[in-house]
Amino acid sequence: MLVVCTGSATKLTRYFLNSDKRYIGTIKLGIITDSFDSEGKIIERKEIKNLNPEYIKKIPGEFTGETEQVPPLYSALKIGGKRASDIAREGKNVFLNKRKVTIKKLDILKIDLDNYSIKIDVACSKGTYIRSLAMDIGEYLGTGAHLESLQRIASGIFTLENAATIDEIKKSANGSTIDKKYLLTPGEALMNFSTIKIKNIIKKRILNGAFFTQDDIISIDSNGGNPFIILDEEENLIAIADVDINNWLIKYLNVFN
Description:
Layout: H1 13-17, E1 21-29, E2 31-33, E3 42-45, H2 53-56, H3 59-63, E4 65-69, E5 78-79, E6 82-83, H4 84-89, E7 99-112, E8 117-124, H5 130-141, E9 145-155, E10 158-159, H6 166-173, H7 186-189, E11 194-198, H8 203-207, E12 217-221, E13 228-231, E14 237-244, E15 249-255
Parallel strand pairs: 11-13
Antiparallel strand pairs: 1-8, 1-9, 2-3, 4-7, 5-6, 7-8, 9-10, 11-12, 13-14, 14-15
């Protein structure tokens, strides 16, 4: 699943990058690859003996919460301005430090001991590599492992249920109706942000980056603090700003003319 922004809404992409993610993945036990997934080169095979399903069921308790993981060598992380994957493909040594990530939920959906695979459902913080999680689970089980398949099913408020395929988008563009709300207004896309609704009479002032007072607002919904989205009376997004409500200080981050 991929979130796509168009037009002036491309300014919103940075607000989505920090969102939590959710994935469905399949971990293949007994085989370790250099990329931590099925596209990499096999570097070790391990014989699996007497693997207890009850031990596998303990995985959520071992890996849920804040943890540290080593990112895959074949990743887009930069080392000295160069991608780690590019350095690795040049045959050079790559050293990546451990990074703190948070596994908010980890469910075992299926254990297939005939094919030595585990299907998982993971909700996690930004920057989490499910490939690295698969490797860590393989080490925990003593079998080794790599990520065999992965599907992102949610990113922040965006979910697979309302995502459209390329074919569905083409049909919609040609006038056909599809039963999915895959097109969102900027205001809808930021619905989990704090909100200030202002009177239309001062809209032009805000679009020019001017200050507005508490008397100019219709309502405030402080949903966890900054940043705030600023909407007009028709709930069109006109600005995003950091707002100190107590001292009424406003710092505009984006203005949408």
